[in-house]
Every structure is written in C-alpha cells, then in structure tokens.
Amino acid sequence: MSTDRPHSVSVAGVIVDDQGRALLIKRRDNGHWEPPGGVLEREETIPEALQREVLEETGIKIALPATLTGVYKNMTGLIVSLVFRCEAADGTPTTGDETRALRWATREEVTELADEAYAIRVLDALDAASPPAIRAHDGVKLV
Predict the structure, then answer these.
(1) What is the pTM of this model?
(2) Cα dist. 109→23, 86, 88, 100 in Å?
(3) Which of 8, 125, 7 is CA-nearest to residue 68?
C-alpha cells in the first residue's frame, strides 16, 4: 500500500461573454486571479460540482453541458483540474465568501492578471481547445 497522499480532483468554469472575454475571480484566500472553481465533493458528479462552484464564486448559473477544454495536473499540490468552457444561463456576477473581486478579461488581460498555470487554462478555454489540452504545472508555472 502506498503512503503517498491521493490526488484531489477539481473543476473550473471559464464563462465566456459575447465579446470573447472570460470571467475571472480574485480569490479571497490568496488574492490570485483565476477562473472560478474548486474541489469535487464526495457525493457530486463533475457537472454538479462545476455548476455549484461557479455559482458559489460568481453568482452565475451556467448552462449544461459545458465543453471540456483542458485537463491540468498540479505536480506539487497533487490536484487534477478539469476545465470547462461555460455559458452563463442566469444571474449577475457578484462577489461572495470566496471571491474578493470579479472582472471580464480579454486574452491579454488574462495573461497579465493570472499566474501562467491558471492563465493557460483560460486561454485554452477561450480557444475551445479540441481535443482538450493536457498540461502539467507546479502551481504557478507550466512544467
């Protein structure tokens, strides 16, 4: 039996508006700009987790199904993230318990605001990567 800790699985939703911009959140816990998302809970499906996390962090209900645009492994944090391109179905962007600020960002703004490991997720989603991108990073930089 391995003594290594298991990986966790997270989801993130990149909501894209009519102008091709992505909605980013500024997290309260670390102040970083990222797409909304988080870890799956034991009893929920991937689409349920995606909808819950995006709603909790942005106030927006997304339409399902969403398009998988990337799979990313944080090699140091042992987190596998599934990133989806999403469409807003209802709601208005709003801050909450986990979100300090929100903003619609262009491709250029995404690369300025977010760490490389998170910016690439948004850029892959904006490009609607097909087949989905598969990438690894150390929590900040791609590896």
Answers:
(1) 0.94
(2) 11, 19, 21, 18
(3) 125
pLDDT at 5: 78
Quote the CA–CA distance of 80 and 6 in Å, as a whole number. 11
What whole-number distance in Å separates Cα of residue 9 and Cα of residue 19? 31
Beta-carbon contacts of 56 under 8 Å, excluding residues fewer than 6 positions away, are 36, 38, 96, 97, 98
Amino acid letter at 119? A
Q: What is the pLDDT of residue 3?
A: 58
Q: Can you give the pLDDT at residue 1?
A: 46
Show me where the domains of the chain are located.
13-137
* Per-residue pLDDT tens digits for 60-103: 999 999 999 999 999 999 999 999 999 999 999 999 999 999 99
User: What superfamily does domain 13-137 belong to in CATH?
Assistant: Nucleoside Triphosphate Pyrophosphohydrolase (3.90.79.10)
Burial class (CB in 10 A: 0-12, 13-18, 19+), 134: exposed
Work out the pLDDT band at 4, boundaries 50, 70, 90. confident
